[in-house]
Specification:
alpha/beta, Neutral Protease, domain 2, binds zinc ion, hydrolase, metal-binding
């Protein structure tokens, strides 16, 4: 396990009644889920606890890899800088990303909590079980957690619970905001050379909408092209081949190539090393004509 995933919490927070769930893949393994928060907010952690219990099962089935630890602690921390952090078996959240009060909170908040919890749970496989080799390919962690968290975890949870949430529409809306960032001179390729990402400030700058949202958008396009069955088999192959180890993008394309009749490596590898690849659409009465050329927004 990578050292950046180790976390210890020392606090006076209280915890909910632990929930024991059975692994869907390993009959002899159970997982103890405990949520921590301020005493007067414990009831608002109940929804996140249900999401956690359900989405772990969804991911186990999708990846065919059992959640590997006997416990999962989830902590709502007041004044936590990030939305959440996927430490192995001890996930930390800012309160606003975890608390849900059915009498006060909006449906939007309910969906947001589900998305953040599903994103962090996805990291238990993409990021923790298999970790990117170096920070130049942060998108292997964040793009995957975004894609899998929303399109598999949140979507399946909503369907199973009968919630009519616009999961795909929200995903597409977020892609447009990433496209805006990607049209600036300051944008960067999804995969940069390892040598160009060394200082802490450059590493920090890799945690942006390019790595999260553009990465997820490319995975969604690939998923649509190769079909969901191929995506699932390729991801299972990728996780099994690099379990408890490190991987880079070429390992991912190799898993897709193994499971898809048409090679994806060339097309995907070229694109993740470019800034942007916009299409210009011109329409006539019965035709839409698409041309592709590299370009950026003019600087003001
Ligand atoms: Zn993440």
């Amino acid at each position: 396990m990578s050292s950046y995933l180790v976390a210890i919490v020392v606090s006076e927070l209280k915890h909910t009644q632990p929930l024991l769930i059975q692994s869907t893949l390993n009959a002899s393994q159970s997982i103890k889920i405990t949520l921590y928060g301020r005493e007067n907010q414990l009831s608002q952690l109940e929804f996140a606890r249900n999401v956690t219990a359900e989405v772990i099962k969804v991911f186990e089935q999708f990846f065919q890899v059992a959640y590997p630890l006997p416990k999962l602690d989830i902590v709502a921390i007041p004044d936590f800088e990030n939305g959440a952090m996927e430490n192995w078996g001890l996930i930390t959240f800012r309160e606003s990303a975890l608390l849900y009060d059915p009498t006060l909170s909006s449906t939007n908040q309910q969906q947001w909590v589900t998305e953040v919890v599903a994103h962090e749970l996805a990291h238990q496989w993409f990021g923790n079980y298999v970790t990117m080799k170096w920070w130049n390919e942060v998108w292997l962690n964040e793009g995957f957690a975004t894609f899998v968290g929303e399109m598999i975890g949140t979507k399946t949870f909503a369907e199973n619970q009968g919630y009519d949430w616009p999961v795909e529409e929200n995903f597409l809306l977020s892609v447009t905001s990433a496209a805006r960032v990607d049209s600036l001179h300051s944008s960067h390729a999804l995969s940069r050379s390892a040598g160009s990402v060394e200082s802490p400030s450059v590493i920090d700058s890799m945690f942006d909408s390019i790595s999260y949202t553009k990465g997820a958008a490319i995975l969604r396009m690939l998923d649509s092209f190769v079909t969901r069955n191929v995506t699932q088999t390729a991801l299972q192959d990728y996780l099994n081949s690099h379990s408890y180890g490190n991987a880079e993008a070429s390992d991912l394309w190799a898993s897709f190539d193994k499971n898809f009749a048409v090679y994806t490596s060339n097309a995907c590898c070229r694109r993740i090393h470019l800034h942007i690849f916009p299409y210009k659409a011109t329409t006539s009465r019965y035709r839409i004509h698409l041309t592709q050329n590299y370009g950026v927004l003019k600087q003001l």
